[in-house]
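In this section we walk through a basic example: taking a raw amino acid sequence and producing a predicted 3D structure, encoded as discrete structure tokens. The instruction is simple. Fold the sequence below.
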Amino acid sequence: MKKNVTKFRGSRTCGGGTHKNRRGGGSRGGRGNAGGCKHHFVRNYMKGLAYGKYGFKRPQKVLSNKPIVNVGELDELAEQLVQYGEAQKEGDVYHINLAELEYPIAKVLGNGRITKPMAITVSECSARASSKIEEAGGSIEEYVLPVKEVYIEPEETMEPDIEEDI
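The resulting token sequence is shown next.
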């Protein structure tokens, strides 16, 4: 069987009909992703390029990226936090301030088992986590951001910056 290269040697249009037929994007069904939902649907579907809407996007105001920790992880890390100076141990109670760590934690969740009594300071805590901590003999304190004091001059000492034109 002859190859197409040798078969069409000397031919002007190489089996494409008239010389106008292979000109432009119309001879291939459009350029780029044209016809992906129509005449090239099967080709795109086989490549995994199916079009259409699917799924659900949650609103941005509902999403939260709060750093969290579980009580089970706190129980495992309590000794290490004391060694690194991030927590204190008074008697057998561990005092941990999660809001003032190098990477602050905003919320404590209740997954895991807790065996040590801990006094934890954090801005938010789930109900399950607080019950587990209190059952183990610990406590939860709510963290309040420190307020900066700003000094404002009394109005009597302030002089107006108005220049009078004569």
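Looking at the output, two observations stand out. The radius of gyration is 36 Å. Residues 71-83 form the longest helix (13 residues). In the next section we compare this with other chains.
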